[in-house]
């Protein structure tokens, strides 16, 4: 998966890749929600897997860029995205490694039955998890 471009929004970072779109949304300084879709737009159908943001304030975050990476930073979390592969490296605010996907196999997406077409990843400081809703073809 290669990064083709990105959009730095007020509430999120949108990655445009050769395999779809990835949205990173800071939920709290310790939580960044990651949503993927292979389609042009993200699903807006209500789901138990994806709750609306509500009135909670967006935590302060910034985006840094160099030739090889994008770095999304909150007060407690850093997500480093490799432009060539879209590999994510998750670190705490001190730069200590929390998680990294080291191979192309970490990004192999296969269709499965779900109620929404978006793959939802959530990373809470130190506790990665991945989930799907259920019962409709994902892509």
Task: Describe the fold and architecture.
- This protein has 139 residues and is mainly β.
- The chain contains no helices and eleven strands.
- The strands form two sheets. A six-stranded antiparallel beta sheet has the order 1-2-3-4-10-11, with no helix packed on it.
Entry summary:
0% of the residues lie in helices and 45% in strands. The protein is an all-beta fold.
Descriptive terms for the model:
139 residues; mainly beta; Immunoglobulin-like; six-stranded antiparallel beta sheet; five-stranded antiparallel beta sheet; disordered C terminus
Query: What would you give as the CATH superfamily?
Result: glycosyl hydrolase (family 31)
Number of domains: 1
Radius of gyration: 14 Å
Distance between the termini: 16 Å
The tally of helices reads 0
Main sheet?
Answer: 6 strands, antiparallel
Broad shape: globular
Kindly provide the name of the CATH class: Mainly Beta
Give the second-level CATH assignment, the architecture. Sandwich
Secondary-structure element pattern, one letter each: EEEEEEEEEEE
The strand count comes to 11
* Poorly predicted sequence stretches spanning 5 or more consecutive residues: 119-139
Secondary-structure-based class equals mainly beta
CATH topology: Immunoglobulin-like
Helix content: under 10%
Query: Beta-sheet strand percentage?
Result: 35-45%
Q: pLDDT average, as an integer? A: 78
Order of adjacent strands in the largest pleated sheet: 1-2-3-4-10-11
């Amino acid at each position: 998966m290669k990064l083709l471009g990105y959009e730095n929004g007020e509430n999120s970072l949108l990655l445009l890749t050769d395999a779809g779109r990835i949205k990173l949304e800071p939920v709290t300084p310790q939580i960044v929600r990651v949503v993927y879709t292979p389609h042009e737009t993200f699903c807006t159908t209500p789901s138990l897997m994806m709750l609306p943001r509500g009135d909670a304030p967006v935590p302060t975050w910034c985006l840094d860029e160099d030739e090889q990476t994008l770095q999304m930073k909150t007060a407690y979390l850093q997500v480093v995205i490799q432009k060539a592969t879209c590999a994510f490296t998750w670190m705490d605010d001190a730069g200590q490694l929390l998680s990294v996907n080291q191979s192309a196999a970490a990004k192999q997406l296969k269709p499965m039955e779900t109620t929404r077409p978006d793959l939802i990843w959530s990373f809470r400081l130190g506790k990665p998890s991945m989930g799907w809703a259920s019962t409709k073809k994902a892509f």
